[in-house]
Amino acid sequence: MSVPIALSGAAEVLRLPDDELLRLPQSRAEELTLEPGDVVLDGELIAGFEADASCVQINCGGCAVVPGFVDCHTHLPFTGWRAEEYALKVAGTPYAEITRRGGGIHASAEALAKASNEQVLRQSHALAEEMLRHGTTTLECKSGYGLTVQGELRALQLADQLLRELPQDGSVTALLAHAVPEGCTATAWMDEVERMLDAVAADSHANALDIFVESFAYSNADLTRMGRLARERGWTLRAHVEQLSTQGSVPVAIAAGARSVDHLSCMPVDDVAALAQSDCAAVLLPGAEFIGNEHAAPGRELADGGAVCVLATDLNPGTAPIVSMPLVAGLAVRRYNWTVKEALLAMTLNAAWVLGRSAEIGALSPGRRADVLLFDGPVSHLPYRFGHNPVAAVIIGGRPVWVREDHAWRFKEVEK
Ligand code: NIG
Ligand code: FE
Question: What's residue 414's pLDDT?
Answer without folding.
Answer: 85
